[in-house]
Design brief:
This protein is an alpha+beta fold. The protein folds into 2 domains: 40 residues; 90 residues, no CATH class. It contains 5 helices and 4 strands, in the order αααβααβββ.
Amino acid sequence: MRSQLAIQAPPELLERLRAAAEARGQTVTRLLIGWIEAGLAGGVPAPGPAGGGAELVERLAVLEALTADLAQAVAELRARGPAPRSPRRVSPSPPHTGEGPSPDQVSPAAGPTPDGAITTAELADRTGSNRAAWNTWASKAAPGAVRHHPQAGPWRLLGKGPGPNGGPDRWLWEPA
């Protein structure tokens, strides 16, 4: 009993198969059956990635070398210790919008962030209010201005400075 195997091949490959079979004086079927039997018996290497195994081995060696270089660079950086941090500062407020006192009239706090200064997010948590309201008020006020909160009392705007976790400058406040 015989079975049939149907395969799809590009026309160029089919032409090459026909030419090889004709050169050997065989049918395409007989030629393919001989190659299949040889492959199953271990006489034909299994097909690999395009470019052959040598290219794959070469690419792997390059990747291993790059990984070793990266591991060396990481070890050197760790040996140096953490990078020095820039000192905390309070930057001036944004451009004046025309409402309230001009920022030129009240200068922002300079130098390191004063002890006890908190960010707008922390102030909103303490007062149980919306931080957008504090930020809106701060953007129209000059550093040094005081905002009175009905439940939390007065808070002085210090200007903008880095938050405790880094990132962009934030509005900073202290109890007034």
